[in-house]
Amino acid sequence: MTTRYLKAPFSSSSSANHNIRRPAAALLHLVCAAAVFSLIVFLIQSSFFTGGKLKPTLVNLHNKDDEIRILSDFQFSVQQCVANRGLGLTAHIIDHCKLVLKFPQGTNSTWYNEQFKIFEPLEYTYDVCEAILLWEQYRNMTTVLTREYLDARPDGWLDYAAKRIAQLGADKCYNRTLCEEHLNLLLPAKPPFHPRQFQTCAVVGNSGDLLKTEFGEEIDGHEAVIRDNEAPVNEKYAKYVGLKRDFRLVVRGAARNMVTILNGSTDEVLIIKSVTHRDFNAMIKGIPNPVYLFQGIVLRRGAKGTGMKSIELALSMCDIVDIYGFTVDPGYTEWTRYFSEPKKGHNPLQGRAYYQLLECLGVIRIHSPMRSKRKQDWSDVPSREMIQRAHVAALRLKRTLSGQGGLGQFGSCNVWGNAGSYSSGPVSGSPDMSYVRKNSNYSKWEVMPFNSLRKEAQDHFVQMDGVSLYKMDGNKLEDLVCVRHSLKSES
Ligand SMILES: *[C@@H]1O[C@H](CO)[C@@H](O)[C@H](O)[C@H]1NC(C)=O
Ligand SMILES: *[C@@H]1O[C@H](CO)[C@@H](O)[C@H](O)[C@H]1NC(C)=O
Ligand SMILES: *[C@@H]1O[C@H](CO)[C@@H](O)[C@H](O)[C@H]1NC(C)=O
Ligand SMILES: *[C@@H]1O[C@H](CO)[C@@H](O)[C@H](O)[C@H]1NC(C)=O
Ligand SMILES: *[C@@H]1O[C@H](CO)[C@@H](O)[C@H](O)[C@H]1NC(C)=O
C-alpha cells in the first residue's frame, strides 16, 4: 500500500519530466509527505473496518478503496500544480478530498472584515471532491433562462418567474400574462447556447493589471470573448484588452448606460445577471443585440463577485476558459480598474486562493503580469483525462456514501421536463419592439440550425440524449432541472 502512494507524486504528474533536476532534498520532502499521507489514509481506511458505523459491504469497500486511491493521486497532482503555479501559495493535503491552501508566512493581510472584525485569514480549506463535481457539472449546463425551464419547474411561472422581474408589484405571478409581458422579450424557447459550442473563450475582468501587459491580440484570438458590465472596448485600450466582443454580463444597474457602452456594436450578446425591469426592457426594445437572462446559482463560498458568474457562463459553452484581468497576483490592497479610479477591494486573499485552486482543477487558465513569462505552458496542470478520472471517482464515492442518486449522467436530475421537438417554440421578442430590433439579427443564436453547430457540441447533445441541464436554486449539486428534447427532429 505504501508503495502505491509513494509513486503518486512522480508517476501521475505530467510535469515530472520537467522537474528531474530538482535537488534531492525536495524529493526527500515529497517522499516524507507521501509516507505520512499514506499513513493517514491507512488510518482513515482502517477506521471503516473498526468503526462499524457505516457497515459497508465488501463490494463497497473494494470500490471505495479504488476511488480513494485515484483521488489521493489527484491530490498530489493538484499539490504539485499549486507549488509550480501558485506564486508562493502551498497546498497541504488533509485526506483524499480535503486540501488547505496556505499563503506564505508573513503575508500582509490588509483587508479587514467589518462584519467579523478580523483580517483575512492566510489559510483556506477546500473540498476538492465537491469542487470538481461542481465545476465539471458546469461543462454540461445551460446558464441562460428559457421558456422550457419555466415550464418544467413546478413553481416556474408562478414563483420563480416573479423573482426575475423587479418592480413587478406582486410577490408572485398571479397574473401570468403580465409576467410574460415582462419576460417574453428575453425568453427564448430553448437554450440559445450549447455546451462545447466554442473551443476557446477569453473571460476579461476589469483589473488595472491589464495595462501592465498587452494581451489584446491574444484575447481577440479566442473563439468567443466575454466581458463585464461597462468595460470599454475601443482603440484606446485595444492593445490591452482587444476589440472582439461576443458576450457581456451586465447587472441591471447598467441599463441606463448600455447604449453608450455598446457604442454601435450590434452582435454582442448581453446576459443580464440578476433581474429585468421596465427601464431595461425599454432599452432592449431599441437595440439590435441579443439579450437574455442568466440562469445559475448563488455562490456562497469561494470567490465572490461578478467574475465567477462570467466563468460559469464560459464553462457552459467553452472547452477552454482563459481568464485575463482578474485580481489573482500577490500584493493587492485595492481593486484597480483599467478604465477608471480604483474601488475598495474585498477578500483579495480568499479570491486569489480560490482561483488558483480552479486553475489546478483544470477549470480556468490564469493570465496576468506575474505569470506572463510562463505563457502557454500548462504541462503542470492535471490533464483532462486525469481530471475526468478524478471526477468519476468523486461521484462514485459520494453516491456510495450517501446512497442517493444514480451514477449515470442524469443522477442529479431532480425535476424532468419535456420540450418535444428541439426546434419548436416561439422566438424571444415582443410586438412593440423598435423597427431596428425587429429587422436585426437579435435572434440568430436562437434560430441557428442544430447542424451548423460545432461537431463537438452536436456530439455532446447526442451523448446527453438531447437533455439540457439547468440549476434550480442555491449551490446544491443534486438539484437540476432536466429538459428532454426530441433527438429525431434534429437529424
Ligand atoms: C502591510 O500593509 C500595511 C497597509 O497597507 C502597511 O502599512 C504595512 O507597511 C505593510 N507591512 C508589510 C510588512 O508589508
Ligand atoms: C457531461 O457530458 C458528457 C457527455 O458529453 C457525459 O459523458 C458526462 O457524464 C457529463 N458529466 C456530467 C457531470 O454531467
Ligand atoms: C393581467 O395582465 C394583463 C396584461 O398587463 C392585463 O391586460 C389584464 O387585465 C390582467 N388581468 C387581471 C385579472 O388583472
Ligand atoms: C465608439 O466607437 C468609435 C468607432 O469605433 C470609436 O472611435 C470610439 O472611441 C468609441 N467610443 C467609446 C467611448 O468607446
Ligand atoms: C442577418 O444575418 C444574415 C445571415 O447571416 C445576413 O444575411 C443579414 O444581412 C443580417 N442582417 C442584419 C440586419 O445584420
Automatic annotation (TrEMBL):
It comes from the Eukaryota. Keywords: Glycoprotein, Glycosyltransferase, Golgi apparatus, Membrane, Signal-anchor, Transferase, Transmembrane, Transmembrane helix. Pfam families: Glyco_transf_29 (PF00777). CDD domains: GT29. It is a single-pass type II membrane protein. One of its GO terms (molecular function) is glycosyltransferase activity. The chain crosses the membrane at residues 24-44. GO terms for cellular component: Golgi membrane. The keyword Protease does not apply. It is found in: Golgi apparatus membrane. Gene3D superfamilies: Glycosyl transferase family 29 (3.90.1480.20). Belongs to the glycosyltransferase 29 family. This is Sialyltransferase-like protein 1.
